Known about the structure:
Blueprint: E1 3-8, E2 14-18, E3 37-40
Antiparallel strand pairs: 1-2, 1-3
Amino acid sequence: MPVYQYQCKNCGFVFEEHQSFSDAPLKTCPSCGEDQLRKKYGNVGVVFKGSGFYSTDKSSGSSDS
């Protein structure tokens, strides 16, 4: 389940919430109680390191003709 970060426009409170993709976005701030929440979008949580993830990477086996 993805983790979404929310910030209140009214009081500036920032928090994270585990939600399903199909869940409706939260609207009410747990700190001040106002309906002023907005989702914050950040970097993607997946990082590919090493070789083999790109079509331009060469395979480790050599097949000389």
